[in-house]
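Sample A.
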Amino acid sequence: MKFLRYFLIIATLFTFHKGYSQANPYRDSVVQLYGVVMTADSLKGIPAASVIVEGRGRGTISNGDGVFSIAVLKGDHILFSSIGYKDKTIHIPADLPGNQYSVIQLLISDTTYLPATILKPRPTREQFERDFVNIPVQDDLYETVRKNNNEAQRRALLNSLPADGREAVNYQLRQQANKAYYAGQVPPMNILNPAAWLDFIQAWKRGDFKKKN
């Protein structure tokens, strides 16, 4: 009975492995894709060019000289893109011998022609000031400006909007630096710090500790 049970388990695993291999023929065919992204006209490296593996949610960007390196699978489609250039897609051969694939990818400039705009200055400063003051402004714009300049509105936006990437990274770096600075010792308490008390009083006067509905 034990032998039969083990035989059934091994047969099931073998069948599952075989079916998975047929559904994913390139799952173990890892290829190191590397190369350089360059302009087609001047052959200069394109920095920060996106190298995306389509359908897999993975990618990388080129360095300052246009050089990149990423692990892909045989049969993948790789999309190269950069602002100001036309996108280009390449295919990693499914029958590629070895596990390395190099490419020099040239991107063509994507030119967009905008309609011409002619700027004419006012003849005199007095005429400019007169026209600037007399420009009609809609009431809705006035109301929008009032809301944006309201201190309570700005404070609410500051508390509700999430931090961007730079703010988050700066906060994390400050936390790490503070932790490393006081490593092996007790950090000072701000209860006796006059500057901390001043910040607390100012925040209390601004109403930062009031309950927000």
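Sample B, a different protein:
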Amino acid sequence: MKRIFANLYLSCSLLLPITTTIIYSPAISAASGIDIQNVLQQERAWAGLQTKHLKVGDIEWVYSESGNSSKPTIILIHGLAGSRDNWNRVAYNLTPYYHVIIPDLPAHGDTKIPNDFDLSIPNLTEKLRRFAEAGHFEKNVHIAGHSMGGAIALLYTAQYPLETKSLLLVDSAGVFKTANTPYLKDPNLLNNLVVKKTGDFDKLFKLATASPPFIPVELKTEQEKLMIAQSKNTQKMVDQLVAMSKIYTPDTFAIATKSIDVPTYIIWGDQDKIINVEAAQELKSLLKNAETPYILKGVGHMPILEADQLVSQQYLIFLNKQP
């Protein structure tokens, strides 16, 4: 099953670690040496999240958490080159009702790994499971994933169906027969999206969003610096993606996806230029227990930033149906 599901990695996007809920203020706009970590920590606090640390094997996990373990647990998984902070805006609406866990995946955000770490989807999924076990929140968990995080969520659910209560997929990675974007047809093009130099962030932001939310230029500058610093690991993951694109097919993806029968909800932006919206219906046809996809009009690849209120609202409605 792991080998089959490795193909889920093929159509993930390069995502934006920065979030945009911080309200514009003169203090931010006038800052010449803004501390982006302090800004993000304030946003996490606004969302009801605390930063936690957990060492599991050779990984030093950093994650956000809210609520107590007596509430139903949700694990939110970000995408390639993203971070836990991608989910802050959605988490704001979930934390009053759920025990929310949002990890920085290995080689992302603040989570630390060895230099020779295996960054494949199967290994990331296995390490996520070990993390959940060490934190004692692996039982009866709701799993949600965005883009590459959707690939990990799918594989996690396929491997641990008895302990997964539901699955949310937001513009999820996969290998689709209905692929009609350049990045699905030729994964080599993803090499052009790695943020390696000044100016790359703006190109990526315009590609990933249909209605880009406002971000003060100082925050964008600092975010670009962080992504440039992480570009080596991002490039390693893209290299694996390209290599696997030569091995796996939509048929192997379909076989693996059809094994999943937990309640599933699919959300997609109809203007997604990375993973086209037709993939949502294809996923619906493969999953045994998926509701009709919720399609967001005028939204690109980043619904969790572009339409966070609608994503939260629809997800809460779906969660309330679960026993």
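Observation for Sample B: The domain at 2-320 is CATH 3.40.50.1820 (Rossmann fold).
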